[in-house]
UniProtKB/TrEMBL annotation:
Keywords: Hydrolase, Membrane, Protease, Transmembrane, Transmembrane helix. Residues 1-20 are annotated as: Disordered. It comes from Croceibacterium mercuriale. This is Signal peptidase I. Its main location: membrane. It is a single-pass type II membrane protein. Pfam families: Peptidase_S26. The keyword Cell membrane does not apply.
Length: 277
């Protein structure tokens, strides 16, 4: 009798793995991308573009920025597409005085961006162009001049501010000032001289609301004006805040043309990209 075990019978080889279809891989990738974008937009940042000059000199028309959502908690306003998924603010949060915040207009829910000036319980008033908080004037000092290149066919806020630069290019030259709030936050504002909205009534900010102002004081429809679509914003509910403006991720001077790809680069204001707010 032989000690050698009999050779096993040949077993059939397993069938070759079915190759994945490229279409299946693409669908999975796109689904993952959608999930990542939704998480990013829901919990982390929301993008916003500056449509006007109301926040000059810090922000210029054509700036694109990210607003951080987590500092103030989450509300319906901070949800993608303004979906009513959250009631109130979760967790409850309040902007600091001096923050630049993106918020929904109290009437038509359009996105706006302004600086937080008054918190609940504050008394806010403008007296001859000087901001007053709780009866005390906010320190305001002259801080040079803001010079902005004038777009072709454009114009300055008022004719007296238009000047030509050394090379003959038209510019807008605006008086610039620095304000310092009681909590030490300091920032630049523009002031064109005494205007109607430079002296106001005393506004008492109610609980759960904010008093918002644009840094371009004579070219901003803000909490000094009643909440009307396309005009003032009135006193803004805290629940309407989307997030805190964080940094500029792109900026363009508006001269780019879709049919001229090289202008996409020449129109970019590269020095503003990555700038904090």
């Amino acid at each position: 009798m032989s000690d050698t075990a009999p050779a096993p019978a040949d077993t059939p080889a397993p069938p070759p793995a079915k190759p994945k279809k490229e279409e299946d891989s693409l669908v999975v990738f796109l689904l993952k991308l959608v999930v990542v974008v939704l998480i990013f937009r829901t919990l982390i940042f929301s993008s916003f573009s500056i449509p006007s000059e109301s926040m000059m000199p810090r922000l210029l028309e054509g700036d694109y920025l990210f607003a951080a959502k987590w500092p103030y908690g989450y509300s319906q306003a901070s949800m993608p597409f303004d979906l009513p998924l959250v009631s109130g603010r979760v967790p409850a949060g309040m902007p600091d005085r001096g923050d630049v915040a993106v918020f929904k207009h109290p009437v038509d829910r359009v996105d706006y961006i302004k600086r937080v000036i008054g918190l609940p319980g504050d008394q806010v008033q403008m007296v001859n162009g000087v901001l007053h908080l709780n009866g005390d004037p906010v320190r305001k000092t002259r801080d040079g001049t803001l010079v902005v290149s004038l777009r072709e066919g454009g114009r300055c806020a008022e004719p007296q501010f238009q000047q030509d630069s050394a090379d003959g290019a038209p510019t807008c030259s605006y008086p610039r000032f620095r304000e310092t709030l009681p909590n030490g936050v300091t920032y630049e504002v523009l002031d064109f001289g005494l205007r109607q909205a430079d002296t106001t009534q005393t506004f008492i900010v109610p609980e759960g609301h904010l008093f918002m102002m644009g840094d371009n004081r004579d070219n901003s429809l803000d909490s000094r004006f009643p909440a009307v679509p396309g005009q003032g914003v009135g006193l803004v509910p805290v629940e309407n805040v989307v997030g805190r403006a964080s940094f500029v991720f792109f900026s363009t001077d508006g001269t780019a043309e879709w049919l001229k790809p090289w202008t996409w680069f020449t129109a970019a204001r590269w020095s503003r990209i990555g700038r904090g707010i």
